[in-house]
Design brief:
- The protein is α+β, with helices and mostly antiparallel strands.
- It has 3 domains: 4-153, 2-Layer Sandwich (Beta-Lactamase); 201-286, Helix Hairpins (Orthogonal Bundle), CATH 1.10.287.130; 296-446, Histidine kinase-like ATPase, C-terminal domain (Heat Shock Protein 90, 2-Layer Sandwich).
- 55% of the residues lie in helices and 16% in strands.
- It contains 10 helices and 13 strands.
- It has helices at 4-51, 59-65, 94-101, 136-187, 201-250, 259-286, 300-318, 348-365, 400-405, 416-426, and strands spanning 74-78, 84-85, 106-112, 115-123, 129-135, 296-299, 322-326, 338-340, 343-346, 369-374, 377-382, 430-435, 441-446.
- The strands form 3 sheets. Strands 2-1-5-4-3 form a 5-stranded antiparallel sheet, sandwiched between helices.
- A hairpin with a 5-residue loop joins strand 1 and strand 2.
């Protein structure tokens, strides 16, 4: 796999080579065309001058008196009787003589023994004509000299482009290399990594994203550590009780009439341990792809009555109550949505699990609990202390409320609300929490 630096250098060099080749071809064509046209213009101007000279007897006399501007130019003199004299006579054919006889100016190209020849012919004041012939080989030599200079200039430009491309590639890749090194440090577990300065907007976006990731990882790992500490503490309490009673039984320190009481305590503590482990397993299953959902029509009002009846005993022990207040609205069956005002299509067992978790959380907060349903919405209301405004957005994050309120009021392990939120998400609904104006909190589950 090639590096960005190598690719940028390669692309820069390739673009420079293409630009040099295209520029060279166009420049050479323009130079040749321009040189040829200049030679033709000079040859034509010289022919005009020679045509206005006094009548000469021969081409030799013409060549002797004329100062030819272009080296290699040959001359010929056409007499009034049509005879042609001079070195350029071999290029004068009947067609050129006919045009000169008609008084036309001749500007053409003919093939000679040494290649192509440029011809310019003009009639004189005495009835004859002057013919100048210039082999294009001389023009080609001039073009060749210019071509060498152009190629040298293009070569210098190519070298500059390669050097510039290499420097540009180094300049562009250095921040990315630094960002990659910072990312590797993050992957290795280091936090608070300083990100490199970026010279471009795109690279700045990459480093900003890495910085945001660093912050998010730090916050997430902090919450995870807090959660592990809290769950470890919760697990240690029943384990300590179980171990203490087990050692007492093993040492024969428990009276026979206390065995039943100790056994009941051991059962209670192991049930607590089983609940903690069950919560952890439930959370793990929610994150797995094979978590099953079995949707069916569910009437909300009877379900809430079942929940209230199930928690009535626990509420009585706490000196509070659990009541229901359901209303029914119109509705119709549409796919997986609402079947009626108080009926939804969902997994009844999972929905019961969600509501039980919310009721348990509400009872722990203190105060009475009310269950409401209307048109596919379930609400669990309590008249406890409520939540701080800043905690409403993080209430369903694992262990967030425990970390916030464990020194203020009774809280659980921090798994219940997280499990409820994940269950509702798997059921295709939404869950939210808000403070009630009269005090307490309301948890709202919408299953439309």
């Amino acid at each position: 796999m090639s590096s960005l630096r190598a690719r940028v250098t390669l692309v820069t060099v390739a673009v420079a080579v293409i630009a040099v080749v295209v520029t060279g071809l166009i420049s050479l064509q323009l130079v040749r065309s321009s040189t040829t046209q200049d030679a033709r213009d000079q040859l034509a101007a010289q022919a005009e001058i020679l045509a206005r000279m006094p009548r000469l007897a021969s081409a030799a006399e013409l060549a002797e008196k004329a100062s030819l501007a272009l080296g290699g130019t040959e001359v010929a003199l056409v007499q009034p009787d049509g005879t042609v004299d001079g070195a350029a006579a071999t290029y004068v054919d009947a067609a050129i003589l006919a045009r000169l006889a008609d008084g036309e100016e001749v500007s053409t190209v003919r093939r000679g023994d040494g290649g192509m020849v440029m011809i310019e012919a003009r009639t004189t004041m005495h009835g004859g004509a002057v013919v100048l012939a210039l082999p294009l080989a001389g023009v080609d030599r001039a073009v060749g000299q210019s071509t060498g200079r152009i190629l040298i200039a293009l070569g210098i430009g190519l070298v500059v482009a390669v050097v510039g491309g290499t420097l540009l590639a180094t300049w562009l890749s250095r921040p990315l290399t630094s960002a990659a090194a910072s990312a590797r440090r993050l992957a290795a577990g280091e936090r608070g990594v300083r990100m490199p300065d970026s010279p471009t907007t795109e690279l700045a976006a990459v480093t900003d994203a890495l910085a945001a990731l660093d912050t998010a990882l730090s916050a997430s790992e902090g919450r995870q550590r807090e959660f592990l500490l809290s769950i470890s503490h919760e697990l240690r309490t029943p384990l300590t009780a179980v171990r203490g009673y087990a050692e007492a039984l093993a040492d024969g320190l428990v009276d026979p009439d206390q065995v039943a009481s100790v056994g009941a305590t051991l059962v209670t503590e192991t049930e607590r341990l089983d609940q903690f482990v069950g919560d952890l397993l439930e959370l793990a299953r929610l994150e797995a792809d094979d978590f099953s959902i079995s949707p069916a029509p569910v009437e909300l009002a009877p379900l809430l009555d079942e929940v209230a009846a199930a928690w009535a005993g626990r509420a009585a022990v706490l000196g509070v109550g659990v009541s229901t207040g359901s209303t029914t609205g119109g509705g119709s069956t549409t796919g997986g949505g609402s079947v009626g005002g108080g009926t939804v299509v969902t997994d009844p067992r999972r929905l019961r699990q969600v509501i039980d978790g919310l009721v348990e959380n509400a009872l722990r907060a203190g105060g009475s609990v009310e269950l409401r349903s209307s048109d596919g919405v379930v609400e669990v209301l309590d008249d406890g202390p409520g939540l701080e405004e800043g905690d409403l957005s993080t209430a369903f994050e694992r262990g967030a409320l425990r970390a916030r309120y464990r020194d203020i009021r009774p809280v659980g392990t921090g798994l219940g609300l997280s499990i409820a939120a994940r269950l509702v998400d798997r059921l295709g609904g939404t869950i939210s929490v808000a403070n009630r104006p009269e005090g307490g909190a309301v948890f709202r589950v919408e299953l439309r």
